[in-house]
Specification:
Elements (H helix, E strand, L loop, with lengths): L13 H16 L1 H4 L6 H22 L1
């Protein structure tokens, strides 16, 4: 995961913001996340959590 590949979506949801921050903080200190084509299970899990929180925030805003 690199910053060029993923950027935070504009949401007003604090859970999405926290999930993004957790993913970025992990990636900043993880050699596997910073290595192109390397895989990091934790980084991928954190990114999926952020994506889910963002989708949930968007669906709540649409209501």
């Amino acid at each position: 995961m690199t910053a060029a590949e993923h950027t935070p979506e504009q949401t007003t949801d604090p859970f999405a913001d926290q999930a993004w921050r957790a993913a970025i903080e992990h990636a900043a200190g993880c050699p596997a996340c910073r290595t192109p084509s390397a895989e990091c299970e934790t980084g991928e899990r954190l990114l999926r959590a952020y994506e889910a929180a963002t989708r949930q925030a968007r669906s709540a805003e649409a209501m």
